[in-house]
Amino acid sequence: xxRQTHIRLTLLNSLVFIVLISILGxxxxxxxxxxxxxxxxxxxxxxxxxxxxxxQQQPQQKQQKQKQQQLGESGVAPRFIHRxxxxxxxxxxxxxxxxxxxxxxxxxxxxNEKLIRPKKLDTLEDVDIDNFSFRxxxxxxDIPGYGQxxxxxxxxxxxxxxxxxxxxxxxxxxxxxxxxCAIASGxxxxxxxxxxxxxxxxxxxxxVSDASHELRTPLAVIQAKTDLLFRAPSATIKDKIHDxxxxxxxxxxxxxxxxxxxxxxxxxxxxxxxxKQAFRLDELLKELTQHYEEIVSYQGKSIHLDAPxxxxxxxxKERIHQLIVILLxxxxxxxxxxxxxxxxxxxxxSSIILRVKDNGIGIAEQDIPKIFDRFYQSxxxxxxxxxxxxxxxxxxxxxxxxxxxxxVESTLGKGTMIEIIFPRAQKS
Length: 428
Prior knowledge:
alpha+beta, 428 residues, single chain, ATP-binding, kinase activity, five-stranded mixed sheet
């Protein structure tokens, strides 16, 4: 079950990583390409603008003006326009014949006029000739007395292409390594994300198993006792009072168990809201102490209340009442005859402290972190008293809903103290 989910999560996580790596690689490649060819394009545009803006004159007039411009009025030579020395200039006539190459003669273009000839004007074009790559730009110029010519500026871009090819190779290799790392990372992250799910699933299975066991026990007793009653249809209630009493007790136990299970199930899904309101916690403790005095006295135990001051608490009174009853029931259950139970509360500037203490059988140190787990009962507790192991789980839920913190101190044979610290500032 979890294996298939693990594989699916791995594929999903890997796909996300691969997409991110691909996007990053593409951004780096195209950004580098744009920056490299940006300078090339600008050089070509500057060269073309130089020819377009240069006044076209008769050859003799042009030579005379060039001499004048070399010295100028002040007799000082002007600054020459900077041009890229890697740019070649080709001139084409109206019949698309290559007339000259201004910068230097080259045999590279001889026989390749069809390839190098500009197809469109004022448009950047790329052409490959004998393992050489060029980028060119062409425009028309008019020379008085000679007519119209096509001037083409061309630049070798082999170095830019080689750099881009190396970058592409690095990106491809890097992406390949990144894909492997992405799969490994995806597998690891999928495993980590499944850890809480596995724990929750295991906890749920354990909860269902324990609940089934706890429900099966009273049902089996009720069924067995009912079968005994059917075997003696003529017997009176007085004759079978023990069986009837057992059925009644188990029915109440079953009803309580179902109610607790329903409370925990609803608490897990956040279906129960806390109705917080202000009330006197010390008065609630006095009321509960009075109710328990007779029961405790009947069992040969004693209960003491320590609430010397008025304690106003903003909380769900019904749930706090349930919490105190659970703690008192556990204290009474695990306190032997002649034992004592203390119930106290006090307030500080920022907190309200509630303590339930007994001198009962105590809890082993290794069992203390587990006492709030559902259906958990220590071996010692199982031998001394009967319970379902749900009360403290409900108590923990009530404490968490009131943002409280719990502290448990216990020693085997000496007793247990449960201290709960609630913040005084509670949201209504």
